[in-house]
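Extended Data, panel c. Modelled sequence:
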Amino acid sequence: MSNVLQKYLPEHAVAPVFELIKQNHVHLKIVNERNTRHGDYRRHPDGFHQITVNANLNKYRFLMTLIHEIAHLVAFEKYGRNILPHGTEWKITFQHLMIPFIRPEIFPHQILPLMARHFRNPKASSDTDATLSLALKQFDERNTEHNYIFEIPFGSTFRIKNGKVFKKIALRVKRYECLEISSGRLFLFQPNAEVEVISN
């Protein structure tokens, strides 16, 4: 297992992550990309703990996702199954498990202050922290056909992963208001949303 982890994690995170996996009897499955989630945790009826993480994540996001899911397991075991999935107990557990990894040997120096800020009050998804998400995306294998929504001009028409087509209209506080062409409905997008620009 530690040999497999070397492919997906920063070098200095492999040993401590392997220990967490052993301690918590985690069955880790590395799976093909899912658009709706980076990872998930399931406790099977026989008590078997399964965590899945997307194989396409860069090593820093893979690490955060894996610890996020282990935090679900640990929080449910410690506080009971009736807690909210991303409630206070999970946040405390995620902070506790993640803090040992927020070090310059593991994360690039430009990400460390963003990580420290994020983990004061971790969110259900790191994608909703647009600043951190954009910083982490720098380490992705970038699809050259795609842009971030903040990069494209107002009035541009673009397509998202599910094939729906929108026009970028306006900035509302931190998110972009876009018009869905087929329905005429308005939607808000995070600045770090990846889109495919359609040539007019």
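The first strand starts at residue 26 and ends at 31. This feature is highlighted in the accompanying rendering.
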